[in-house]
Every structure is written in C-alpha cells, then in structure tokens.
Amino acid sequence: MNAPEPIKTSHVMNTYGRLPITLARGEGVWLWDEQGRKYLDGLAGIAVNGLGHAHPKLVAALTDQIGKLIHTSNIYGVRGQEDLADAICARSGMEEVFFCSSGAEANENAIKLARFYGYKQGKDFIKTVVMENAWHGRTIATLAATDSPKARKGFEPMQDECFVRVPHNNLAAIIEVAETNPEINSVMLEVLQGEGGINLASVEYLQGLRKLCDERGWLLILDEVQCGVGRTGTWFGYQHAGIEPDAITLAKGLGSGVPIGALAVRGSAAKLIGPGNFGTTFGGNPLAMRAGTCTLQTLEEDGLLQHAVVIGDHIRAGFRAALEGVAGVTDIRGQGLMIGIELDRPCGVIVTRALEAGFLINVTRDKVVRLLPPLIMTTAEADLLVAGVAPIIKNFLLE
Ligand SMILES: *Cc1c(COP(=O)(O)O)cnc(C)c1O
C-alpha cells in the first residue's frame, strides 16, 4: 500500500483534524479513496449514511427531484414538507415539524421553543436542564448546552446561566436542582449519548423523567440527532422507553447526506410558533425533503430497523468474543447500530491504524471506540468489520 497522500487544505480552514485520505466514491458499505484504496465503512459519515452510499432508491429519487426543483422558498407552499412532516409525525406521534438544515440548528430552535414556551407562560427568564457529556452542537446556544470543555474553550462567554447541568441518567439530580432553580421549564437530552461516549439512559429514568416533566409543566426535549431515524432499532431512541416527549430534534440520518434538520413537537409544545418566530432560507427545501421522505420509506420497505437490531447485537457479540479476557477493555455497549467499546486508556491512534487496514471507525471521549455503521450492513460485512478492528484494539492494548 502506498503512503497516504496528505490532503491539500491550504485554503480550507483548519477545523477538523483530518485523516490523510480523500474519499472519491462509495457503494453500499464500501468507500474508495482517490488512490483507489477500498475501505469498509463502520461510521456512515457519523450516523448520516444509514442507507450506505449510492443507494439505488435514493439516487433515483434525488435524480428525479433535481430535475424538477431543488429550492423555492418558504414564502411558498412546499409539497415535500407536507410529505416528510406527515412521515415523521406518523412514526413519532409528533404533531408539527419545523425544517432546517443541521442538528445544531434544530437544537437551537428547540432552545428557542423552550424560551417561547416560557414567554407564553409569562416568564421572563427560563432555564433548561441539560446533561453531563451532552452534545447538542456548536452554535453559541447549543455549545452552552454541550458539555465539552474542548469545544467550548475560547468561545466564552457561554450562556451558561440559561442551562443547569446534571449527571446523565439521574432523576434525583434533576429534582435536586429544581429546588434552587424555579426558572426551569424544560429538560433537553440525548436518550443515547453519541459524542459523549455511547451512554444509554435507562427506561426507568426516561419514564420517571416524563412523569416529572408532566407534574411540573416542563417540556421534555429529546435530541435524536444521532440516535434517531432507525439507528437503534426503533424509529426514535425514546420509543424503547414507551414515552412521548414534547419535542424531538432530528438531523444526521434523516437526509442520508443531504443537509437537513428537523424540530418536531406535540402537545403543549405544538401550536406555539407562528409566522415570523422561526425561519431559515434553506430549511425544508424540496431536495432535502425528498431525501428525508425517501430515507424513511426505504428504511421501512427494506426492514432496516429490525435489521439494525440484529446486526448491532451481532457486532457487539463479535467484539465480546474477540476481546474476551483482554485487559483494558472496560465495556462493550450500545443499542442497535450505535456501538461503543470503552478502553481504560486514550486510544485515538486506533482510528489511524484501522484506516490503514481499510476500516473507517472513530474514537470519542478519548477512550471509546465508536462504530456507527450504515443500517444496510450485512452479517458478512459485519463479520469483516469485527475481524478487522478487534485485532487492532487487542494489539493496541497489548503494547
Ligand atoms: C451531531 C450532533 C449534533 C449537531 O449536529 P450538526 O448537524 O453537526 O450541527 C447535535 N446533537 C447530537 C446528539 C449530535 O450527535
């Protein structure tokens, strides 16, 4: 194998610590770089490409749509918004959807919704409870809701006075902070934290939280940007707990790579917003809407939710078997195709080694090897992924 070519980023702002490959094309779970080297995709563009790459149904739908309309404006009716909002509400129990273009933007609007809810209640200041290890985005408000010292550093002042942070999965902690923070009117969390290290909220916690929010008239806002759209085996992560949130945010997997974000609301969070309150130029454009509708339809037609459960369990079982008795593996966890392998030490170098061996994976929170494969991954491809990545983890820990 040739040495990887550094990417020419001279005029591209130096934001991401980029890996030394440039991908040129993909098909299914496979990607090829500009040098023609082949990679097995264990990351799906960070939970975006649920349908893998160049899925025939998506290619056909988008090709058709590009030939008709890409963008009009929200000052006109957009048929595709009606279709996708119906599809999201039918699967989530939500009543209204606002479309935007990213996860951060969806969460930004969720935060604005909580404020507007407070305003309508006659409150002049509200606070939202957020979690330790949360990730909600990089805009000023979502960064304040995010628990990442690395991402926040240098961008202060944060709007920290608008958020109260508590440990994830701990109802008593929320009840406690409520005593000294009467301004609280909402709770925002990921039911399965992604960037925070694949941390699952328990069913009892989520049910208790729903009850608490009902008792206090708080909005329960769930950030489903990473765990939503089928990835955990249900349409949305909270459906494992049988609860109904007041608002959810979606993005990553919804458009299969076409930029999209959505805030969906029900109950007391619905019918709040009117013309002039929310808006965005690109949000809900016909191309993004077609991508979203095609994604949901294809996930359903091809049985990919149930498939995500089977393949996710298969991959976790594979890693458990391959890493059994290896000192340094502290946990193998997750749900559906959100998979975390936690080690007892920082392990970022595993990403580069996997890349050199032809596997695209990720490490988050320094110590958690994270896999977010496309939902179309077959058992045979999952076996290749485990067979390729497990020895890299094992050798790293034996050094
Ligand atoms: C990625 C992510 C975001 C931010 O989405 P962007 O599209 O990058 O702005 C927000 N919340 C969660 C849970 C995410 O995983």
Largest sheet: number of strands, sense, barrel closure: 7 strands, mixed
CATH topology of the largest domain, by name, is Aspartate Aminotransferase, domain 2
**Structural class of the helix and strand makeup?**
alpha/beta
Name the overall outline.
Answer: globular
Number of H- or I-type helical stretches: 12
**Number of beta-strand segments:** 17
Main location: cytoplasm
EC number: 2.6.1.11
Binding site for pyridoxal 5'-phosphate: 103-104, 223-226, 281
Binding site for N(2)-acetyl-L-ornithine: 138, 280
Q: Summary?
A:
By secondary structure, the chain is an alpha/beta fold. The chain has helices at 44-47, 56-66, 79-92, 103-120, 140-145, 149-152, 171-180, 203-216, 286-301, 304-322, 349-356, 379-398, and strands at 23-27, 30-33, 38-41, 96-100, 127-131, 163-166, 184-189, 192-193, 199-200, 219-223, 247-250, 261-265, 329-335, 338-343, 359-360, 362-364, 368-371. The structure holds pyridoxal-5'-phosphate (PLP).
